Amino acid sequence: MNFLLKVLITGLIAYLLPAILPGVKVADIKTAALFALVLALLNAIVKPVLVILTIPVTLVTLGLFLLVINAFMVLIAANFFKGVEVNGFWWALIFSILLSLGSSVLYSLVGGGKN
What we know:
mainly alpha, 5 helices, 70% helix, globular, membrane, Phage_holin_4_2, transmembrane helix, transmembrane, Phage holin family protein
């Protein structure tokens, strides 16, 4: 149930963020929810492999390279949908940061962290 709540919250934030980010477009709420689901699956399957492969770079950059990995996850997930458009790496980086922050705040507000 928590996974579904996180995906729905991420989808909502992904739907709202293009209003303030001109380099990102999301067609509708259904596309945003599916985008959030694909992003969650990529983060569960692909991201751990990338994190392990890039440990030296991550250590040298004091963990900032993880932001780059998050941006690439957004770009990869956006490639699955015609309704999601991210205009370049920098927009993906900004989008991924705001998506993480917004999802965390909203998830904590709805009480998702409580058992």
